[in-house]
## 1
Amino acid sequence: MKSIALRGVPAAPANDQTASLRILLAEDNDTMRRLLAFVLRADGHEIVEARSGTDLLQALAGALTDQGELGFDAVVSEQTLPGLNGLTVLAGVRARGHSTPFVLITADLDVQEQVRLLKGVVLDQPFNTQAIRAAVATSTR
């Protein structure tokens, strides 16, 4: 895959061996969602976007496979979404027995501890493009 270098958006590290992933990205801020989607697409990932907790749940339900799997290699979600928050969605995913990697973006220390207990990866705010790439790579190993 050809590396893309744009001002302010560093290309993925040359030694990054992360395969192309199907990622569900939930972020209510349009500008931030487009930026995160752009960065992850530049690394070769397929991105499905959600704008709210309700959209996130609908995308998860719509992607269920015949075997009951979620149909995404990873989920990246902001904590504070309209409707359901990211932690509630993560807890529901885990309660249904799914182990799909889940990256939750939050600065709330109490939420961060709960995410870790649910076997999720925390992306602390504020973050940069390298941090989102690292969080996705860490969550899918």
## 2
Amino acid sequence: MLFLLLVTLFTGLFRASASKIDAPPQQTGVVSGSAYAAPDKYDPKRDPEKDLATAEAEAKTSNRNIIVIVGGDWCSWCHIMDDFFHEHRDVTALREKNYVLMKLNMSRENENRAFLSHYPRIHGYPHIFILDADGKLVQSQPTNVLEDGRTYNVKRFKKFLEDFAPKASA
């Protein structure tokens, strides 16, 4: 009886600690007091028009621009970019301070042609579009110029994010 009690207790403790290990990381892109939550993957089922409308509303209320990262879960450099932001919290903080994140899927499953037809042609992935709070294109940016070996260059990425951040209102 005592043995069963100990096994039950131990199992309960193990499950509790395992569930903490398996818990997803805290989502980035959430601004305090905001219901907006940035997507954490490229989902071919998402509606980009709806996502952009939500991003625009958030950008207007938080005085930020929109950073649209076009890529896919198939894209190795998209994963490298995600890892880069995870490893460089200062770059992530700069992005979150100045931009509302929108991830746009580009894959065989959903190429989002109608949505992307409003923007300059993309020659490689990931690709970044910077939009103002009204959804107007500010910058179309290939990411290969931000690369450094098998990752991204911190200095160049910070400068890029600073250069296209919304201008402070007078």
## 3
Amino acid sequence: MLMTVSSPSDADVAMERYSAGDDAAFVAVYDAVAPQLHAYLLRRTRNSARADDLLQQTMLHIHRARGSFIPGARVMPWAFTIARRLFVDALRRERWEVPYGVEGSEPEERAAPGASADDIVQVREVVTRIDRVLAGLPSSQREAFELIKYRGLSLADAARALGTTVAAVKQRVHRAYEAVCFALGDPTGAAWRVAD
């Protein structure tokens, strides 16, 4: 089997420099990872202040653990793993009740530019159904689905972030996708693509 190796991203290169002692590279690392981590944490907590706090904790942990970053590794899966663990620890500690929703769930954000009022209403209905389905899924399926569909991670990167295998991530995402399609009354997935 032929495997392709992706070239390191600017964030990966910056993290390597930062882990080697180049303090100035932290700005590039922060600029690359913070927006994605904040969106992930905001989706999980549904509270901007908590997401901001967890983002700062994540970045502090990245700073403290920079010496353990493996050259050649990808920074995003590592950063997502840190953020996820901090979120789970905080959840256990504070017993948060975390509502779950679809990023960009405001219909104006999900509809195409120039969409009519009817289109926005339709998107709102689809997003509401997707929100309900995702909220009812086991957290393992929901997190895998989120990392693949909303964060754009590869299967391998999502598996590293979740501390599991690629096969397990595939299975979790497939089950979540099936649940969403079933809820939309479209086992082929055509309706889901409207909400993508």
## 4
Amino acid sequence: MTTHRNQIWIALLALSTAAIAGCEKENPAGTLPTVKMQLGDRQFTLEVADNERDRKYGLMRRESMPADHGMIFAFPREAPLAFYMRNTKIPLDIIYVDATGKVVSVKQMKPHDERTVPSDGPAQFAIELNKGMAAKAGVTAGTQLAIPAGVKSKD
């Protein structure tokens, strides 16, 4: 009887470990911490991707995103950045921002396009919004943004 219980316990432990490991590969919508951020004349709710795993996964596999939502990617240091759209279904704007909060460049990215979209200079943050939202908010290269307190890389 004890051996059978031990086998069940080991099987449940292995199953739960596999489930946890599987969850670490993805960022389903709503699982990352969020911050409110003013971008131009609009306020957005941004999911925070502040570690390598979350930055790699980004907005992949999402079918849609509310108009006032997006994602902010925080990197350990300022450097030239480049993003691509592998497994990303939503057309996006990408706003590259330097360590001081100055917008380096604003570009658009097409769904599933694996060509890189580089920043026009060193950046420490990248913000992804639905396509066209940066222009609607009045955000252009040179715009000064206030990065919310606590948004920084964890690696």
